[in-house]
Amino acid sequence: MRYLFLLVLVSPLWALDTCEEDVIEKIKSPRVKSSMSKWLDHDFGLKPYRANYLLPYGYTDKDYDAPLPTVEYENSEAELQISLQLRIAGDLLGLNEEYFLSYTQKSFWQIYAKSSPFRETNYNPEAFVIFPIADEDNYFRFCSLKFAIAHISNGQPDTRDVTLTDGSYLGNLSRSINFIYTTLRLQHNSFFLDFKTWLPLPENPEENDNPDIMDYTGYASAKVTYFYDANMFTLKVRGSTKTGNGFIEGTYSYPVLQNYFYLKLFSGYGESLIDYNNYINKVSVGFSFSR
Predict the structure, then answer these.
(1) How far is CA 283 from each of CA 46, 63, 280, rounded to the nearest angstrom?
(2) How many whole angstroms separate alpha carbon 7 and alpha carbon 79?
């Protein structure tokens, strides 16, 4: 069943609607006509935000830590990301800015392990505004400035006080952080540069699920995106100048049928929230449905 599910996800999406445009044009009510067209086109304003992908195979150089002694995770797993955005307003300040809501969910699926559990899922809603920048004079042209408020968590309960049968503590499975961030985008031809800085919102230290997370993620990142013909390459570096911790991540995608071949390389801390303080080297391969 698990492999059938993967096959369905990576198969092409065939058109199911057979209504023709001339039939819709015969409808007299403009509102009914508009509603029907959007319904038939599946157009409800939602668009891709980050890459949407299914990577059936990912391999890391060491086994993942399991929450219970009786549970064993494999060093091979699948990874799934769904990321959508919705434009909610624009030009409220007369600066041609645009306002968005977004939601990203990333899951790590131990599909090759017994019972195939989801090892970790991260939930990431955001609200943000993008201000365009009119700049034609620089080699790297300033494109936009983004301001956002975001939350990311793994949806697990606080288990700090949970004891196991041998009397030892389970440890806290909950991970979460609320933060604000800004991203400056620059462009030169088919090169894009994104410089991002973020800051966690104040939280009660006794209730903080991961008080030292910034020691592993740092407060800034830089990402390069490059297009060559139909190929797309990205390279992202994030880290802390204080501790030297962080990660480097590279991706490659190329059109295949109606989707994209997708390759991802990761090395460092913070692949997922549960692993924010575990150093991981990983290669994953599969398909993306958007870039």
Answers:
(1) 30, 14, 10
(2) 14
Domain 45-288: assigned CATH number: 2.40.230.10
The domain limits of the chain are: 18-44, 45-288
**In the block, which residue shows the tokens 């009786």?**
70
For residue 121, CA distances in Å to 104, 153, 154, 216, 229 come to 10, 8, 5, 19, 34
Most confident listed range (64-68, 160-164, 194-198, 200-204): 194-198
The amino acid present at 217, given as its one-letter code, is: T
pTM across the whole model: 0.89
Residue with tokens 């104040």: 202
C-beta separation of 150 from 124 below 8 A: yes
Q: What is the mean pLDDT of residues 134-154?
A: 91
Phi, psi for residue 102 in degrees, rounded to 5? -140, 160
